[in-house]
Amino acid sequence: MARSRRLRPLTCHQAIYDLSKGANGLPQLVTTNFDLLFESVDKNISRIVPPSLPDLSLQESLSGIVYLHGRLRKPEVGIAAGYVISSADFGRAYLSQGWATRFVKALRERYTIVLLGYRAEDPPMRYLLEGLKYLIGVRYMDFVHKAFH
């Protein structure tokens, strides 16, 4: 019987973290996940959560991890979690208020984006990338590993 190779916990997160480092050696991660797994890799990583996103159009730097759709935390009475989960949340973040769209647009203008965990063909990402392509002539490629199909 063939034994399957199992990765150690956080092996993939460590690899992504290492690959995300910019010329200054600091990580430059943006995630739509809520989990804190990258914080397990680097307990001192800077955490950025909306509405306090860096204004990349003003040349602010990106270092640390941006939790674009919110960061998991303990619930507090009377304080909204601020997660982007529902279609209404998505509509506010990307359409009516547009703060996530502005951030991703500026991100794409300054950085190379590598999408992990979903494909550029997934409807929300496809709409966003096609819109950015139209606006600023962005090209993108979708690398898919066969193991994930």
Q: What pattern of helices and strands is seen along the backbone?
A: HEHEEHHH
**Unreliable stretches covering 5 or more consecutive residues:** 145-149
Indicate the radius of gyration in whole angstroms.
Answer: 17 Å
What would the average pLDDT be, to the nearest integer?
A: 81
Q: Structural class, please?
A: mainly alpha
Helix content: 25-40%
Largest sheet: 3 strands, parallel
Q: Give the strand content.
A: 5-15%
- Across the major sheet, the strand order is 1-3-2
Q: What is the count of DSSP helices, taking H or I runs of 4+ residues?
A: 5
Which shape, going by the Cα principal axes?
globular
N-to-C span: 23 Å
According to DSSP, the number of beta strands is 3
